[in-house]
Fold:
Amino acid sequence: NKVKTLQVTHSDRVNFAQVFDKSNCSEEQAIALFNSGLMYKLFPNLERVRGLVQYDHYHRYTVDAHTLQALRFYLKAVIDAEKLIGTNSEWFQELSDSDHEVLIWSLMYHDMAEGLKGSHSELGAQLVIAELPTFGFEPKFYQEVAWQVENHLILSDAAFRKNPQAPSTWQWLSDKGLNPKRLKILCILTAI
Structure:
């Protein structure tokens, strides 16, 4: 009941952002953050998608449960990437701490705009731009998270809706801003 009446402040969000990373958050802690309701207070748009069913072949959980599952998978991969993400594990281990931070926040926001009218990817990127400053992040960081969120489906689109061997597909990806650094993070985001 205390969480229901809790009012989250800017300071609370900044403090959370400082400890919400691969070295300070375990799978059990992520589960507890969701089960306690604290995540829904920190991320009001997550509350909006609580229990929201997604009707597609990518998801078997509600949006909020899918987000928790993605975070859990990520936190397990921190411990044993090779077992969980196979060929992407080498890239996963090469990511810098700031790349991991982009990845974990991208996982948090990648489907948060589901249920809104319009592209959930584009609207999710807008949520990132609007909300991550309240967690104390600088524009360069949250713009990169926004790019990942907005483009989290492009590798699937390239693989399943385009010809991945065609130069025009790679030009399309490049035109969207894909570069080698983003590709590593995006591959892992897609795998998770």
Notes: The mean pLDDT is 92. The chain has 13 helices and no strands. The CA atoms of residues 148 and 186 lie 7 Å apart.
